Amino acid sequence: MRSIAKVFGRSPFVPLQMHMEKVAECVKQIPDVVAAYRREESETVEALRKKISRLEHEADALKHDIRNSLPRGLFLPVERVSLLQILSLQDSIANRAENIGVLLTMKQARSFPGFDDRFDDFLGKTIETFELARSVIDQLDELLETGFGGLEAETVKELTDMVAYKEHEVDVIQGVLLRELLAHEDEVSYGDFFLWTRILRQVSSIADRSERLAIAVRMTLETS
Amino acid sequence: MMESQFHIIITLAVIFGFYMAWGIGANDVANAMGTSVGSGALTLRRAVILAAILEFSGAFLVGSHVSETVRQGIVDPLIFTGDGMSFMLGMLAALLAAGVWLQWASWKGWPVSTTHSIVGAIVGFGVAYGGLSAIHWDKLGTIVASWVISPLLSGTISYFIFRFILRFVFYRERPLQSAKRLAPYLVFFVFSVLTLALVFKGLKNLNLDLGTPAAFAVASGVGLVASLVAVWIVSRMPEQERDRRPGGNQAITNPATVQALEKAVKHLEKVQSTAPEHMQSKISDALDNVKRLRFESQKSYEFHTNTAEYKSVEKLFVYLQILSASMVAFAHGANDVANAIGPMSAIISVAVAGGESIAAKTPVPLWVLALGGLGIAIGLATWGWRVIETVGRNITQLTPTRGFSAEIGAATTIVLASKLGLPISTTHTLVGAVLGVGLARGISAVNLITVRDVVVSWVVTIPAGASLAIIFFYGLKLVMW
Q1: What's the CA gap between A30 and A41, in Å, rounded?
Q2: Which CATH code, of 1.20.1110.10, 1.25.40.10, 2.60.40.790, 1.20.58.220, is assigned to A11-218?
Q3: Which residues of A touch B (CB under 8 A)?
Q4: pLDDT reported for residue B333
Q5: What would the pLDDT profile of A100-110 be if each residue is shown by its tens digit?
Q6: How does pLDDT run across B12-29, given as a tens digit for each residue?
Q7: Cα–Cα distance measured from residue A124 to residue B290, given in angstroms and rounded to the nearest whole number
Q8: If DSSP codes are grouped into helix, strand and coil, which group holds residue B28?
Q9: Which of A211, B106, B225, B407 is the 20 to 30 A CA-CA neighbour of B135?
């Protein structure tokens, strides 16, 4: 008799945004941990690494919760698959942040003149890319309100284009950084070289995942 | 047969019928009003008062049409000729069976409908008394088909109404303005349909029967007046809220501007890398300036979401949803009161006629309709408000635009069914309507398991109601004979 209330399932969108908040907290730690690394404060680096790992773990718990609360009988305005894809992309960004933290605790690698500035630019652009992707996830409220179409869909399309452009910029800087690293190959120890390339790959991967995230949301839009 | 026996039977009929009406008011009204309370369109207090008035008027003004079907459509009254006692006891048993089954199902949390229970119960005692041939199977088939069709129809209507709102409000550049322009038309539609339902045949109860052309004329007249009032109300509403953002930050950047600035930065960087030495400092100044502009525009761009505007659209729809919820309450009263008073008035008419003959067509007495309406209102006041509160709290996902779409779909279907004399389930119709809005991508999570529950309840309720009615029928016979 009162079944009308039973028609409404638990919405996964708010938890999805909460998950993204946690991921953002992880990403926000990266500049701090890099700064501490440069100051050669290994204890601070270790503390920040632990903090990122803890945040990542919290995000994981949220992720499992969301996955478990998506029964097949739930009809969503978005394909279940897209939703799970968005979730796993968000999750992978948190993992990258954790990886960067871990890599920075491995060894105090030496850098060379000009490298740090360019690296900051690289990291800054990556975080901008991520923030743009996050603003796409923030738009989910509006998208829900407008049935995934209209002006709101246009906004998300624009944002996705911006994310794609930023990601491209990150790629370009990564290339430059790699070239510089190779140009200094005689001054850089094998271990340092290895570590830097690993770090570069993890950072640029955040930008890459952010782009895919924005595209995944874009795929859910009404095409009219 | 003795006079006193009739008195007992009439008293029991009134008690059972009133109990059924009470149950409808206590449980089912929540479906009509819970959505409005959930979306914040109405406070609980106002919802209860509004529902009580509309349920009563629906029951009283339009109610009898379905009653006739429940009373005479399913079981052939001719088989009881000369044995009015069995007929009365059977109807009593049916009321009791439906009541008990509903109580049990509610306790178990099954989405069982009052309508289906009473239909099942009447079938049960009909079979028990006169065998399988006593049932108008074709009529029963129509009724059962209407149970399947009604959620489909309400879902379809709601789907299209919500798509319509998306297209003409949310997809527009200025949603609030579009909503304001659309509102009077929607008001016209709601009032016309409601008036049509009322006037077409409903007012027969008050001996105010109008012909079809007159009914349409009156309906569109009422709709026109209402929409003029709507125009007036809408014109008094505040303009776009986003123009009044604190801090005077009106410069909300166009996405195209943000992109163009992006490109400008890119080009300036290219200039910087190729320009001769003496230009370098000026170019890097320009680059810094443009970069700052880009950053600021991005900021305001991110900050600018249409949230405020969508919120004011929902605020506007709050009024429309009150209308649509009222329409559901009215239609609900009209359709569901029959479940309680149909069997009750049947018993009373036989008892009054001396218990011997079963009149094929006797009008439902007005005081019986009033009693049914009153029962619903009392059920609402004593218990229903609590259910409305609970339901309302659980369905906050149903914003006014969604609620409006669902309720219009449901109410239109129910009104139509009442006209055709089909006793459909209001709850299932509303479930169908909500699913329709969900399919139009209006609701963030719809539980499709309820569909299975609804189908199961179709299959289970008739046999269950029927079996209980048979048991009670023989029980009552033992006691009363």
Answers
A1: 15
A2: 1.20.58.220
A3: 1-13, 71, 73-77, 135, 138-139, 141-142, 144-152, 154-155, 158-159, 161-162, 165, 222, 224
A4: 87
A5: 999 999 999 98
A6: 889 988 988 888 888 888
A7: 18
A8: helix
A9: B106
